[in-house]
Amino acid sequence: MEEIDILPTTVYSFNSESRLHENVRKLVERETRSKNRENYATRHDLYTKKEYAECVDWLKACVDEVTQKLGYACKSMEITQMTAAIATKGQTHHPHDHSNSVISGVWYLNAVEGGETVLFDVNRWHVSPVRLDPSRPHTTDPHGSHGAFSFKFYEWYKYDANGRLTPRHDKFNPFVVATVRPEPGKLILFPAWLLHAVAPNLSRETRYTIAFNCFPRGFGYGSHKVDY
Known about the structure:
Blueprint: E1 12-15, H1 18-29, E2 34-35, E3 40-41, H2 53-70, E4 74-87, E5 93-96, E6 103-108, E7 117-122, H3 153-156, E8 157-159, E9 165-167, E10 175-180, E11 186-191, E12 195-198, E13 207-219
Antiparallel strand pairs: 1-11, 2-3, 3-4, 4-13, 5-12, 6-11, 6-13, 7-10, 7-12, 8-9
């Protein structure tokens, strides 16, 4: 049997000069941070601070390149939210996407053991009106019945003691999963609807990333044209 993978979701990757991401890491280390559900984060408008202007220019240039590549009909793609995510040993980030955005980005300011970005989507073979899924090996819903399908990622996958993502069921894997390993200065851009998470930081070193979202300016046609 041959497997043919088609209709992929493209993720775009760039690399910054070491001077740039090292300087931004020093800035982030001095930022006030607040505790999130599983890690720490700074304020969400870092792109407005003048000390980040050089990195914002570089990030926007990368976003512009992807915008042109995809042929989006808009004046520009603007950064509307930008925060630093900070994870100490054992910390992670739950699966999520970004509403009211078109392009999302993660820029790695350093590399640690573990801490991969996990990108995933539902395997469309398993979106079926016919119930073919096995009993869930794990559920967080006390009222859920055995065999009830769930789109919650952690209903079907878990991290083992070594921080590796493993399926909870031997054969039934209802998600398509890919991981991106952190590399200092590496930037990935992906569609904002794409579900993603962060694997546990297995190092004693703190993991630093810049996460941001973008929305178009000046788009639409005729009476539906939007400009802000």
